[in-house]
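User: I'm curious what two different proteins look like when written out as structure tokens. Can you demonstrate?

Assistant: Sure. I'll show them one after the other, since each token string lines up with its own sequence. Here's the first protein:
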Amino acid sequence: MPWNEFNYPISMKNLPFEVRNKAIEIANALFEEGKMDEGLIIAIAIKKAKDWARKRGIDTDERY
């Protein structure tokens, strides 16, 4: 299932906008490979998006 900025996993809802969009991009790429289950894809995408953001000095604190 491809995700977008309006339809994304609930676990991404509190990520800052830019980080969430990167996580969606990563999750979609992993999903296309078709080698992992959805839960693992989401967890990896969030981790990689946060790593990506930190390297660029982007705030990764989740919003509540």
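Here's a second, unrelated protein for contrast:
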Amino acid sequence: MALERWLFLYTAPGLPAEGRVEVVKTPACTTTLAGFPTTDMAMRACSSGLTDTLASSQLVELCGGFASEHLLTIRAIVGPAVPVGLVTYTGDMTAALHRLFG
């Protein structure tokens, strides 16, 4: 089976509280990019406005701003058949990340 539908959740300061959802479609794949100002707001959306998108996704990725607890919550929502991953950075990126986020 080919990947046809996936969701990427991210956080970005300045986004509206209700989030910004953009859908990118190609003939082979639909990518949903869902951004929120905080992880808490994103998680609330996963329990309400994004439930249909989550239910139809074959793969879910969370940006590095999310934690393991968020990953577990999403896994509980989508079930064991849908891979849910968390973007991480290797240890050699620590200094660069500290420059960005203090």
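A detail about the second structure: Residues 51 and 98 are 34 Å apart (CA to CA).
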